[in-house]
Amino acid sequence: MNMTFLNKKNSAFILASELWNIGDYVLLLQTIDGLTRYCDIKSFTVATWAKPPDEIIQSLSDNNIRLISLKSFEAVFNHSSLVVFPGGQIVRDNSSISSLLLIFLSVCISKLRGANCAALAIGVSKLEKLSIRLLWRLIFSFIKIVTVRDKRSRQILPHLLNNHTKLFETADLVFYPSNLHLLLKNDLNPIANTMVIAPCIDASENRYLSDEFIIWLSSYIVKSRQIKKVCFLAHDYRPEMELNWCNQIAKTLEKKIDCEISVLSSTQPEFYFDVYRNAAIVITNRLHSAVFSLIADKHVIVLDDGNQKLLGLVEDFKLPLLSQTQYSSEQIDNLLIQLETQTELSIFIKNELTKKAILATHSFELLKAALK
Questions:
Q1: Which of 56, 174, 197, 257 could lock 52 by a disulfide, CB 3.0 to 4.6 Å apart?
Q2: What is the mean pLDDT of residues 138-149?
Q3: Which residues of 335-349 are buried (b: 16+ CB within 10 A; e: fewer)?
């Protein structure tokens, strides 16, 4: 029975990640921009498992975006005409069974009443847990169109899809050329003398940085280059994720080098973009930190922690990848000289950014075509 009359026309229900990470928050904002511009969506409801920071709740409310709990009755029985997963590494083993069950119910009931369901520019990890694999197969059985953000996700995802689901490889939605990109452009060309260190510390995904290595690397670059400030930038605002680690390393580093050291975090993208615009060099093992740096036209060094999505970005942009266990001062010198003098690499990166922007936009164009 066709129950599309129950749906609220031109409305989207977004199943967002936890918004305690600035990268996930930017993905949400990019998704809203793209759906508004390309799919004529006029109203948005966002569901999250955990309550976001109050500042984000207020910011969304100020823009007439409703935020509800994924655990609520409304999340399961929403009346939007479109249900969307807004990018990010959503398919992974460290998801909770409870959250996936609620997502399954929401998507299933939405599909039964005639809503369209889509997953845009998602990242997919190899799933080892049978229960997680089964739940995602059930969820994807109700999704009309799926776009993935990288080659590895494209290789893994077909094992979770039915034949009727359309699958396309595009690019991470952070590359989508929204107005947020303007905030990363360094038009004023200030004197950049800050080294930004943006870590990803997450035991649930085995993401880490070596304390000893970071202290040595920071000290060496400050002393060998004209670096006046070192900024530890936490993309995740929760103390147990990165803030505690940043504060600990900063205190140790203060005893070894003579420069200004700060630990920064915020709930607003504009704050982070300002830090990246004024950076001389960015050192990170975090995907979206590297992407923000590239868009801001900054030198970036990626630290290898074995994460596959990060290695994919390194391959696409030919970025320098630094081991945390095998390194030398000579290696760092050669790497910095390469970054500072290789104009061909800079041109290649700009061309690749243009390609990624087109691919990211293609996610919304494909969805627009599918909705007709």
A1: 56
A2: 96
A3: bbeebeeeeeeeeeb
What is the model's pTM? Answer: 0.94
Q: Which long-range contacts (CB under 8 A, 24 or more apart) does 337-345 make?
A: 339/281, 339/299, 339/301, 340/299, 345/318
| DSSP run (H or E) holding 283 | strand 279-284
Q: What is the pLDDT of residues 85-143, one digit of tens each?
A: 999 999 999 899 999 999 999 999 999 989 999 999 999 999 999 999 999 999 999 99
Q: How confident is the model at residue 75 (pLDDT cuts 50, 70, 90)?
A: very high
Structure confidence by residue, pLDDT tens digits, 212-246: 999 999 999 999 888 999 999 999 988 888 999 99
Q: Examine the pLDDT at 259 and tell me if it is beyond 70.
A: yes
What's the CA gap between 205 and 285, in Å, rounded? 13
The answer to whether the beta carbons of residues 200 and 166 sit under 8 Å apart is no
CA distance 285 to 314: 11
CB 254 within 8 A of CB 36: no
Query: What six digits make up the tokens of 305?
Result: 């922690």
Please give the structure tokens belonging to residue 351. 């061309």
In single-letter form, the type of residue at position 333 comes to: D
In degrees, rounded to 5, the angle at the alpha carbon of residue 292 between the alpha carbons of residues 223 and 186 is: 75
More confident residue, 358 or 223: 358
3-state SS assignment for residue 20 = coil
Q: What is the DSSP string of 100-131?
A: HHHHHHHHHHHHHTT-EEEEEEEEEPPP--HH
